[in-house]
Amino acid sequence: MGKVSAPTYPGRMGDSSTEEAVRLASQPGITMLIGGLDAGKTSVALEAVRAALAAGRRPVLVDADVGVSTVGPPACVSMKVFESLDDLDRLDQPDGLHFVGTTTPTRLVLQQVIATTVMTNKARELGDVVIIDTAGVVSGVAGETLKYHKTELCRPDRIVALQRGEELEPLVGMLRRFFGVEVHVLASDPGLIPMSPDERAHKRSSQFARALKPPLERWKVRPTVFAPTLPMGLQLERLDGVLVGIQGGNGECLGLGVLDHEEDGLRVETNAGEGMTGLRLGSLRIDRETFQTTVINLRELMFGV
Questions:
Q1: Gyration radius of the chain over CA positions
Q2: What is the mean pLDDT of the chain?
Q3: In sequence order, what are the beta bridge partners of 257?
Q4: 245 touches 101 (CB < 8 A)
Q5: Which residues contact 293 (CB under 8 A, 6 or more apart)?
Q6: Which overall architecture, per CATH, does domain 16-187 show?
Q7: Domains of the chain, residue spans
Q8: CB neighbours (10 Å) of residue 75?
Q9: Dihedral Cα 219, 210, 296, 143, nearest 10 deg
Q10: Are 178 and 269 in contact (CB under 8 A)?
């Protein structure tokens, strides 16, 4: 491994909370970062990667934010192994990918928990520092359920909670009560500038465009290759524009694709078709020109209920 420069922290100079968060997240073992939108979790995660590299460790980042990703595309949980600082320039090239199919953290909770667990288990085998960067939903039934089951299955050695006021207290209390895990509650950097909804949408579209960049191949697909299985009699044109995960034979996700309906059946447009053995249906329809997405309900789409 080449020479690694000393880490530079994302918070304000002398921000002891930020420095402590980075120190904790760069320690051996598994650290889960939780906090609301724009609490600074991703900044802490990336600086922790730098700090771990500087200490001669091998960090792995699990990006569990399906809405606006840092590693890999949205609608997935991704994993990146860092051998050197140069890997920070290749965040769009994940070392592991698990398709979830939504960019809304409050939907498809089961799929998100499974995806995060699978990627964390792989990360545990590949590095000695594992950092889980989670989505910014931390309250309500969906938010607490998501964090509860991620903690239950990923079994982090510590949780770093970044909060502005007391918004994380119910969640922190629940995690401590049920799992006895170390939860370090630290103040998020008040100088962070929140990303507007339009900025989030634009960034998400840009990430989808990058994940589906040409050259794209068009593969004709049979109705039998989907998960979930298509019901008999489904009008296949209803699947036009649906986002899919390109699956390999060992359960791994190879990349993303978009379904295209023609008179003679369905095709999938993707740049990850080599090794494809099946397609996982997402709960999004994507515009192939703007890469903007709209939410769909698969049950309604396929069964009309």
A1: 20
A2: 92
A3: 244, 270
A4: yes
A5: 103, 204, 205, 208, 243, 284, 285, 286, 287
A6: 3-Layer(aba) Sandwich (3.40)
A7: 16-187, 212-303
A8: 27
A9: 130
A10: no
Give the Cβ contact number of residue 225 at 10 Å.
17
Note if the pTM is more than 0.90. Answer: yes
Look at residue 46 and give its three-state secondary structure.
helix
Tokens representing residue 128 in the block: 């000695």
Q: Supply the angle between the helices 16-25 and 41-54 in degrees, to the nearest 10.
A: 60
Bridge pairing between strands 158-163 and 129-134: unpaired
Whole-Å CA distances, 52 to 47, 82, 83: 9, 10, 10
The phi and psi torsions of 117 (rounded to 5 degrees) equal -65, -45
CB 140 within 8 A of CB 148: no
Q: Where are the alpha helices (DSSP H) in the chain?
A: 16-25, 41-54, 109-126, 140-154, 169-179, 197-211, 298-303
Q: For residues 147 and 153, give the distance between their C-alpha atoms in angstroms, rounded to a whole number.
A: 10
Give the model confidence (pLDDT) of 28-84 as tens digits: 999 999 999 888 999 999 999 999 999 999 999 999 999 999 999 999 999 999 999
